[in-house]
Every structure is written in C-alpha cells, then in structure tokens.
Amino acid sequence: MLLQNSTDSTDKLIKVIPFFYGWVILFVAALVHFSSAPGQTYVSSIFIDHMIDDLGWSRTTFSSLYTAGSMTAAIFMVAAGRALDKFGARKTLTTLCLMMFLATFWMSGVDSLWKLFVGYALLRTIGQGSFGLVATTMVSTWFIRIRGRATAISSVGGAASLALFPFIVHILIERFDWRNTWFILGIVVLIVLFLPALVLIRRSPEAVGLRPDGVNYRMPETGGDSDKEPTEANFTLAEALKTKSLWMLVFGSTAMPLIMTGLMFHHVSILGAGGISPGLAALTMGLFGPLVFLGSLACGYLADRIPNRFLLAAGQFILILAMLWTIIISAPWQAIIYIFLASISMSLMSTPNTVIWANYFGRTNLGSIRGFATTVMVAFSAMGALPFGLIYDRTGSYDDAIFILLILPVIAGIAYMLAKEPKLKSKLNVF
What we know:
mainly alpha
C-alpha cells in the first residue's frame, strides 16, 4: 500500500539530502534498464550466429526455443507484478539481480536444446519482463505531475545499454568466445545493480514521509489550481480488467514487441541480406540507444501535455514505415535510415506506454495491473523471432514476413485511438 509507513522514514540519508529522493529512485531505475541487457533481444541477436556455428543447430531451432522461452516468461509476469505490490521493489529487484547472474551462468554452459530453452526462459523472465516492470513502476510511483519526463530520463539506462552492449558483446565474443561472454555479462549485472538496489530503493514517497514529485501541494488563497494536490483513480486489477481501456491498451501493445523482437533478433542476418557485414551490423544496432533516448526525452515532454494514446498510435504508423524500409536496404546509409525510423517508433511507444498505465489506473495496484499487461507484451514478444526465422529458412528472404506482419501495427494503432481514460465511480485522493 502506498500509505504504509516504514522504518525507512527515519533514514538519515533521505532527511539530509537537499533534493527529492525520487531522483535517487530514478537513478536506480536507469541502472535497472541498463542491467536488463542479457535478457534483451539486442544482446541475444549478437550471440545467435556464433551459437549456431558452434552448436550446429538451425536458425529455426533457435527462433523456436527463443519463442518458447519467452512464452514461458510471459506466464510469470502476473506473479512478478503481484510480488512487486506485496514485497516492494527492493526485495523484488535484489532477488531478480541474483537470478540474472544465475541465468547468464546457465547460458554459458548450454550444450543441449533443453538447456537453451531454460536459459532463454530465465533471461526473458528477468531481463525482458521483470526488470522493466520494476523500473517503470518505481518511477511511476514516485512521480505524478512530471511522470512523462521522469520516465524519459530514466530511459537513459536503456539507451546506454542498447548503445553499448551490442558492440561490447561482439568484441567480447571475438576475444573470449560466446560462453565466457555470457558469464561476464552476469558479473557486470551484479557489479552495477545489486548494491544500489539493496541500499537505495524505498517503496514509495509516502513510506518515507514524502509526496510524489517532492511537492507540498496546497490550494493558493487567490483560487486557481496550479498547486492543487493531484488525485488518482486507484483501480484494483479486477476493476481494471472490466474497463475497455485496459483491453485496448493491451491489444495496442502487441505489435511493437512482436515485430521489433523479430527485427532485432535477426538484425545481423537482415542487414547481412542487404550486404552489411556482421561487425557493421552490430555497430549499427548501437545507434538505437542514443536515438531512442533522444526520442524518449521528446516523448516524455509530450506525454505530460497531450493524450498518450495519440503518441502511441503515431508510433504504430512509423513502425510500418520502418518495416517497409528493411526491404530496400542495400547500403550502410539505408541501414541507418531504418534504425532512425525504428528508433522514433520505439520512442513513441516506450515512454507514453509506461506513463499511460499509471495515469489511467493509479499507483496503488500498478504492479499487478502492469504485470498482467506485461504478460501479454512478453507473450507477443515471444512470437517475434519465430515467423522471421521460419520464413527465412524456407525462402531465403525476410520480405514475406514483413508483408504478413504489417497488419499488426494497423490494428494496434486503431486500438490505441479507442483507449480513452477510464473512470471509477469516485476518485480518491491518495494523500
């Protein structure tokens, strides 16, 4: 519960720092996004060709097991959301951090298909699903009025991860082989994240005697509402499931994870079909990070000012353009344009999609509600690698997969436009 007090309210650090403690939470959230890399497709895609060469399994086999592992991960997202609401971010995240190390250690020893499945399931559950759920929920819990901007700033961690890890992983594999590289990634996660998660995270601003955004809200004597205390409609999961808005948001969130997972998982191969070398393909993937971050900053500013559903719908339209552009790639400059279009689409989807859930359904049960939504997102993300891999193995081209999947962002854009803010019978002030 947001109003629950804790012994952390006497924490000396929180009392003496001259700024809102939510910015510390935001910093940790950025580290979480950064540390999610081993479970993200942009890292797995760098391993894939090396693992295929060493283990002798087909691209379809890897795609199928990646899909199966991701589908398994989706099953656990509701449980992860409930754990986040029940135990708080600190206990949940420190546990996940240790599990991530164990998952990467497991991947370093893969020598059979069942081990690959288990490894993918662990990595996707922790990195692609749970880490993102915890990080975005923390930010949404500590900020209301500037939730969009705060969410965008925290995305610097994900942007840095996307910019650095593909290139670093490529170098590490070339120098130490793919097995040792998986183990190294687990060590990096422990070093970067474990202590900050254990020491710095607090459950909510109310738990330490603060208020969201660090503001002491009041009504000015002259009237007006510039300092008016914000109110929230805090839905339970059961109440949220009865709204049309939740289902429209869920339907809308299916296209991007499915398509971008497929494109990123086969990134090296897709660009290779256009004559781009593996090293250059890994390097171009690093462009996603800074481009998505800059786009997210702009979208964070917009998310605090205009309805998020419009931004989300626009992201689907640009995704269509990015998909079609992959068909004509035959030179490095065309690959860069593709990454630019895809980055804009991802930016329009990432920050507004985080903000809209807290804006619509409140903070009290946000972990459970977003856990349900994340289940669907991860499930569709799971299906992204398989159609691309199957069609490529049969035709030697990714074009048919692109044309077939174009219908998804069209449907998603319509769903987002229909996702209007839901209403409870009464809005309860949370302070």
